[in-house]
Amino acid sequence: MTENYDKLMQLLKSRHSCRFFTPDPVDEKALQHLSDAFALAPQAGGNRHLQCRFITDQATIRCLAARGQEAFAAFCQSIPSPFVREETERYGKNFFWFSEAPTLAIVTCRKAPAFMEQLAGKKAPLIWGGELSAAMSSFSLLLAAETIGLGACCLTGSLTMWREMEDLLDIPKRDSLILLIALGYKKVLS
Ligand SMILES: Cc1cc2nc3c(=O)[nH]c(=O)nc-3n(C[C@H](O)[C@H](O)[C@H](O)COP(=O)(O)O)c2cc1C
User: Fold this and answer.
1) Hey, which of 5, 81, 114, 168 has its CA 20 to 30 A from 23?
2) Please, are residues 183 and 101 in contact by the beta-carbon 8 Å criterion?
3) Ligand 1 midpoint to CA 17 (Å)
């Protein structure tokens, strides 16, 4: 009776964020599995508001990381307090390391509609549920990645530069960039 629970626990315990990948590309079939898992999670308002697309072009991923890092460095330079600047720079080392990831998942959701903002003000995004739905779908994707031997790491730190990232990724104005997920085959570190 506990067989499924045991399997689930094993999967949950084996999943860890992965930040080092082999250069092997993630094939189409694997990406399809990830998309399927993403779409099967519970989503507010059906699955109309969420999107997950994959960037598999290495040059594009490197360019995104480099441009994000540049924008972040410029932002850090504008911080007057040396202490706050150094702390921000230190924390920011976790934000743009994904340049060598063979694949990057881009998770976006439709912004809450105007009527919902009128109804609920600042609470509108929470009620709209886009970000929560994205979290649920992304976790399904992470678990699916683990079952097919892929490593993954969610990334929201890079959204400190969200304007630049949304611009570089051509996110339509009606949508918000929720998170990036670095993906690839796990590199065994010696
Ligand atoms: C929403 C979210 C955003 C995250 N953003 C980043 C990030 O910007 N950079 C990073 O290196 N890791 C990021 N992580 C990964 C966490 O650091 C990691 O999940 C946490 O340390 C727990 O480790 P585990 O995933 O191995 O269990 C993020 C995780 C989540 C869930």
Assistant:
1) 168
2) yes
3) 7
Q: Which of 156, 152, 169 is nearest to 26 (CA)?
A: 152
Residues spanned by the domain of 176: 18-185
The residue nearest atom 23 of ligand 1, judged by CA position, is 17
Helix, strand, coil % over all residues of the chain, rounded to 5: 55, 20, 25
Separation between Cα atoms, residue 88 and residue 22, nearest integer Å = 29
d(CA 48, CA 44): 9
Q: Could you report the per-residue pLDDT of 91-115, keeping only the tens digit for each? A: 999 999 999 999 999 999 999 999 9
Binding pocket residue ranges, ligand 1, CB within 6 Å: 16-17, 94-95, 153-157, 179
Residue recorded with tokens 């315990």: 13
Report the CATH number at residue 80: 3.40.109.10
Give a yes or no: residue 32 inside a domain. yes
